[in-house]
Amino acid sequence: MTATGYTVRGLSFSYGATTVLENLTTTLQPGAVTALVGANGTGKSTLLELIAGVRTPDAGEITPRPRRPALLTQRSEHIDGLPLTVRDCVRIGTFGQVPCWRPMARRERRAAEEMIERVGMTPLRESRMRDLSGGQRQRVLIAQTLVQPADLYLLDEPSTALDAGTRELLCTLLREHADAGKTVVVASHDRDEIRFADTVIELASPSMSR
Ligand SMILES: Nc1ncnc2c1ncn2[C@@H]1O[C@H](COP(=O)(O)OP(=O)(O)OP(=O)(O)O)[C@@H](O)[C@H]1O
Predicted ipTM? Predict the structure, then answer.
C-alpha cells in the first residue's frame, strides 16, 4: 500500500489532433475520496484510463506507477456477450490475487459473496448479466470493482443508473475503502457524490484553461 498516494505530474494526452489533457499536475491522496469533475468531454474517463495504465500519456507520469488498480469503466457492453452470472462476474474481481489455474480459496469466495450481499444482489446471484436491469448490472460491476484487493480504486461515473438508496450505499462503500487507507478516485456528475468527496479535482478542456 502507498502511504503517500499518487502524484500526477505534467500529464498530457491527445487523441490524434484532439488535445484532451495538457500538462496536468495533481495528487491523489490515500485515505480519501477524490471526485473528478468537469463538463462532458473534458477528459475524466481519459484521465482515469491514464492513471490505470490502460492508456499511455504523451508526456508526464504518475508516480508511483499503480500496480493492479481496480478500474470501473463506463463502457462494459462486452460483458453481455459472455455467459456470466452475477456471481461469476463478482468472483472475477478476486482473480488478480491467485494464478488462474488455482481453484478459488474459501476466503476469495466469501469476499465475493459478501460483496454481492452488500450490493443487494444475493437473490439474483445466479442470473445472467445480460438479463439484469441497468441499475442491477451497475451494482454488480461496482461489487466486482470494490472486491478487488487494490490500493487504488478508479470509478468512472459509478452512480449511473443507480436509485437513491443504492447511491447512498455506494458512498458508504467508497468511504469504507478510503477509511481503510485506499486511494479512491471517482469521475462524477452527481452532486451528492461530489459533496461527499474529500477532494475535488476540476478538469477544464485545454482550450478553456488557456
Ligand atoms: N477513443 C477515442 N478516440 C478519439 N477521441 C476520443 C476517444 N475517447 C474520447 N475521445 C475524446 O476525448 C475527449 C475526452 O473524452 P472523455 O471520455 O475522457 O471525457 P469525459 O470528461 O469523461 O466525458 P463525459 O463527462 O461525457 O463522460 C472528448 O472530446 C472525446 O470526444
Answer: 0.97
At residue 193, the 3 state secondary structure works out as helix
Residues with C-beta less than 6 Å from any ligand 1 atom: 15, 18, 20, 38, 40-46, 187
Phi, psi of 96, rounded to the nearest 5 degrees:
-60, -20
Q: What angle do CA 34, 36, 37 make, to 5 degrees?
A: 135
Residue 4 DSSP SS3? coil
Alpha-carbon distance of 25 to 19, in angstroms, equals 16
Q: β-strand 183-187 against 59-63: which pairing, if any?
A: unpaired
- Of 74-88, 144-158, 162-176, least confident by mean pLDDT is 74-88
To which residue does cell 437473490 refer? 123
In three-state secondary structure terms, 143 is helix
Residue 30 has pLDDT above 90, yes or no: yes
- Structure-block grid coordinates of residue 5: 498516494
- Chain Cα centroid distance, residue 53: 13
Cell for 202?
A: 476540476
Instruction: Tell which residue, 83, 137, 143, has the closest CA to residue 112.
Output: 143
Q: What is the pTM of this model?
A: 0.93
| Ligand 1 atom nearest residue 48's Cα | 18
